[in-house]
Amino acid sequence: PPQILDVGPERVMTAPLYSQATFSCTAEGNPPPAYQWLQKLPTAQGTVLIRSSNSSLIISNVTYDYKGEYVCKATNVIGKEERIAQSDAISMQVVGAPQVLRQSGGREVVVVRGQDAVLRLVVCADPRPRTAAWEWGSLKLEAGNDFDRYKAEELSQDEREDCYEATLTVKEVDLSDQRNYYLVVENERGKDRHAVHLAVKENFLCAQPVSMATLLSIAAGSVLLLLILVCFTVYAMRREKCCFARRGDFRPSDLESERMKQQGTVES
After folding, report:
1. Which BP terms in the Gene Ontology apply to this protein (predicted)?
2. Same domain as 191, residue 106
């Protein structure tokens, strides 16, 4: 099986945000092994990503997404049997200014007029953010405060280490609430700013209320239609009874008398 001879640079490393980080791995085997660098994310699910298929891994622009443990995996095949060797884990910490994860909350939140809107973004920072606020127009709302129909929640711990969720709630949104809302986060190493767009859709079922005159017209039309149906039903029933009554006046003896009269006429 393959044998890993060396991995580096060290078992624990710290990389500044937006810097470059390099990992190296040396293994031997016959046949020569193939390499993979795996990253285990610091989440409850323990998600594993393949970061490289070479003996070295070069991260040219370190972000908080690269925080976690890295393992070098060497593999070769003898006959039809796959043989695997893995290195000890290398832990990489990322430090720097806050970074709002652009893919965390989406670029736009669409809400029907009159409903509540919840805007969410995830920010990562080490050290922890000391301030967080939502800004729109000329207003600024610090995390943990509320104003009128707006409430900015305190930062809550995300499932990822050194990451936090920021939430802004807008109650009973109106068309005037449609705009960009900016999350601004700062720590002693710097700050970051990112926007979420709130789009408000008109609720056409509620936007055009039915007038009282229209309701009365509909009610009057319904009553008139009902009266017509009742009259038609009564007329049909009376006509049917009349037909039955006429049939009831006819007797079989009448037919016999008529037949006798016709025979008498013929004989004479």
Report:
1. cell-cell adhesion
2. yes
